[in-house]
């Protein structure tokens, strides 16, 4: 009787074991990491891509695979795809200051300055000692301030359009492109005079500008006179061949 009972327990135990789900095999991430260390672009895309698409992969391995693939995509000039990989990595672990900074650098290169600034700020919040993020944040903040100042005067010349009487000045006021050119000429003129080596040199530079203005006023409206070209030529002369 006891032997029969033991046999029954053995059968039941076997049946229970048969119905228990098998443990998922551990996914090996070594091939992806080896490809990343070797900077083997093709293998990174295949080996790491396989890890990224496998939901059974450990979170840390998946994050490393995403970062490795993003690095390769950057070298291939595929910034949008690299940003997408960083997005997923940060969803998996929103404490990665380095990745916020790296994503910010990509966004800045793409011209997405507001979101780049936000990424740099988040990186600094996560790691106040992050030197690269601090440098990036400061540089971009200064750039945005400068762009904001430029936008505030965009389409406005160096003079008050409400008081002009000359036809050429009215034409400049009516054309945002000409207005911007006039403001750039005025700014460049102020710079070259300020940087002149002597008072005599500064006076000579101012005489050149006065002559340009007098010629512009006199020739505007005459056949063959191109105001835009004349202004562009003057700006190039002030800035020099190197542009500043």
Automatic annotation (TrEMBL):
Superkingdom: Bacteria
Keywords: Repeat, TPR repeat
SUPFAM superfamilies referenced in this protein's UniProt entry, alphabetically: TPR-like
Keyword Methyltransferase: no
Chain coiled-coil ranges: none
Residue spans of the TPR repeats: 63-96, 97-130
SMART domains reported in the protein's UniProt record: TPR
Keyword Repeat: yes
Protein name stated in the entry: Tetratricopeptide repeat protein
Species name: Bradyrhizobium ontarionense
């Amino acid at each position: 009787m006891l032997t029969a009972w033991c046999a029954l327990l053995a059968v039941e135990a076997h049946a229970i074991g048969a119905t228990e789900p098998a443990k998922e095999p551990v996914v090996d991430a070594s091939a992806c990491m080896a490809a990343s260390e070797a900077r083997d672009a093709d293998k990174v895309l295949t080996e790491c891509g396989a890890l990224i698409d496998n939901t059974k992969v450990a979170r840390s391995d998946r994050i490393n695979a995403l970062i490795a693939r993003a690095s390769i995509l950057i070298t291939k000039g595929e910034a949008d795809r690299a940003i997408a990989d960083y997005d997923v990595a940060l969803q998996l672990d929103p404490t990665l200051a380095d990745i916020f900074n790296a994503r910010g650098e990509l966004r800045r290169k793409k011209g997405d300055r507001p979101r780049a600034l936000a990424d740099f700020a988040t990186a600094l919040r996560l790691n106040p000692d992050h030197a690269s993020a601090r440098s990036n944040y400061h540089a971009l903040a200064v750039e945005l301030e400068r762009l904001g100042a430029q936008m505030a005067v965009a389409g406005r010349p160096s003079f008050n359009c409400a008081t002009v009487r000359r036809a050429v000045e009215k034409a400049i006021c009516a054309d945002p492109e000409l207005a911007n050119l006039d403001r750039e000429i005025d700014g460049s003129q102020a710079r070259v005079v300020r940087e002149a080596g002597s008072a005599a040199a500064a006076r000579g530079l101012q005489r050149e500008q006065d002559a340009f203005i007098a010629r512009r006023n006199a020739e505007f409206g005459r056949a063959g006179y191109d105001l835009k070209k004349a202004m562009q030529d003057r700006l190039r002369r002030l800035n020099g061949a190197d542009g500043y």
